[in-house]
Amino acid sequence: MVLTSQSRPLDGVRVLDLTANVAGPLACQVLADLGAEVIKVEPSAGEAARRIISTIPGAEHITPYFSPNNRGKLSVRLDLSDSDGADVFTELVRSADVVVQGMRPGALERRGFGPERVAALNPRCIYASLSAYGGGSPMEDRPGIDMTVQAEAGCLSGQPAGQAPRLIPFQLIDGATGHVLAQAVLAALLHRERSGVVNRVDVSLYDVACSLQANYLTLQLNRPERRESGAVRTGRGAVAVEPSGVFETGDGCLVLAAYVPAHWRTLVEVIERPDLADDPRFVDQASRSVNAGALRAELTEVLRGRTAAEWVDIFESAGLMVARANTWSDVVASELFERRCLAQPAVQDGRAITVIRTPARYSTFDTTAPTEVPGLGEHDEALTGEAMEQRNGS
To answer: Residue 186, exposed/middle/buried by CB under 10 A (0-12, 13-18, 19+)?
Structure first.
């Protein structure tokens, strides 16, 4: 582990990380960046994300789902169904402040380490559970990942008519859930330190996915049509936020948001179409959204007359909210990315690699010191020896 002279909020806190893939490891990565000692408890073959590798020639050693979310952790291999593994894990629980587990509801209980058992071993240990759909739901035993939860939670709703639903092309639900889980663990630690109350924490991908869509789901909950027939208009078209979204230009696309009345008035002046402001179809914010198709047709005709870069410069100068539709390669090469210091140095299998930092910044300590991605079972001997010493001494 990297030593630092800076104190961190979670110095001295021990976290047992029994999660895999993205959301759980990300949550525990946030805790590690805040100073916690995070012990990644893995099966003998290692967690699944270790085997998801790059297919880019020359970068096959990169594990993009594992490396960013497991820096600075310790790795120990334990089979909890085996008596020796269970003994070691028991002693680790006795010394832990937090257990974070991402098995399906009830799976860890069947291995003898449910919340009641952990509380009996260590009454101060916070037990945090991550699942796809949440314990107590009819779908609690169903496996789920980001893309299936997107579908279940309505994230694919609101696509243009006649088009197949399109998945969000990265793990938005996983990422958001990881940060929610880290926040919940931090709140539980604070509650324990202030009031002596030890919480159990439960976070599900489905709940977070619904929360991310709170504005649209709130609208659905309050529409009279829902009570009458269940046939309810969905997606952005149900909200007065036009014009906004992706627009074609002469050489590509840009993203523009000009639904605020002041911005709308600026937009029609800048594109030299003040007549649009007087058009009865576009006279106010609600009308513009009801007649979104016609409005987009009018705007696209104008926008195709210049390049995306030209329009971005024009709109930015006018104070409008606009952005280029960058690719991932554009992003990592951009000045903004560099200025925000988002590239995080790390070491994996003896090689220097670069990953993405966790986003929060702090005035008194740094979370970007180079850290190592642990090899599978790298700390077996040290942690098993510590656990057995503790067991023999108790």
So the answer is: middle
Q: Among the options 17, 97, 146, 174, which is catalytic?
A: 174
Q: What is the pLDDT of residues 52-93, one digit of tens each?
A: 988 888 888 889 999 999 999 999 999 999 999 999 999 999
Q: Report the distance separating Cα 299 and Cα 279, nearest Å.
A: 13
d(CA 394, CA 386): 12
Rounded distance, CA 194 to CA 34, Å?
A: 19
Alpha carbon distances (Å) from 316 to 150, 244, 246, 252 = 33, 15, 16, 17
Q: What pLDDT, on the 0 to 100 scale, is given for residue 238?
A: 65
Q: Which domains does the chain have, with CATH numbers?
A: 14-211+341-393 (3.40.50.10540), 253-324 (3.30.1540.10)
Rounded-to-integer distance, Cα 177 and Cα 206, Å: 9
278 has catalytic annotation: no
H/E stretch holding 329: helix 328-332
Distances (CA, A) of 143 to 105, 134, 146, 210, 383: 10, 11, 11, 18, 31
Q: Residue 264 contacts by C-beta under 8 Å, 6 or more apart in sequence? A: 243, 258, 277, 285, 288
Write down the number of H helices and E strands in the chain: 17, 12
Q: What's the pLDDT band for 225 if we cut at 50, 70, 90?
A: low
SS3 content of the chain, % helix, strand, coil (to 5): 40, 15, 45
* Distances in whole angstroms, Cα of residue 225 to Cα of each of 6, 228, 239: 57, 5, 15
pLDDT of residue 111: 93
Mean predicted lDDT score pLDDT of the chain: 90
Amino acid at 372: E
The contacts of residue 98 (CB under 8 Å, 6+ apart) are 13, 14, 15, 16, 31, 36, 125, 126, 127, 128, 185, 188, 189
Q: Which two tokens stand for residue 361?
A: 């910044």
- Beta strand pairing status for 351-356 and 343-348? antiparallel
Q: Which DSSP symbol is given to 102?
A: -
- For 153-197, write each residue's pLDDT tens digit: 999 887 766 778 888 899 999 999 999 999 999 999 999 999 999
Q: Which helix (H) or strand (E) segment is 72 a member of? A: none
7-62 per-position pLDDT tens digit? 999 999 999 999 999 999 999 999 999 999 999 999 999 999 999 988 888 888 88
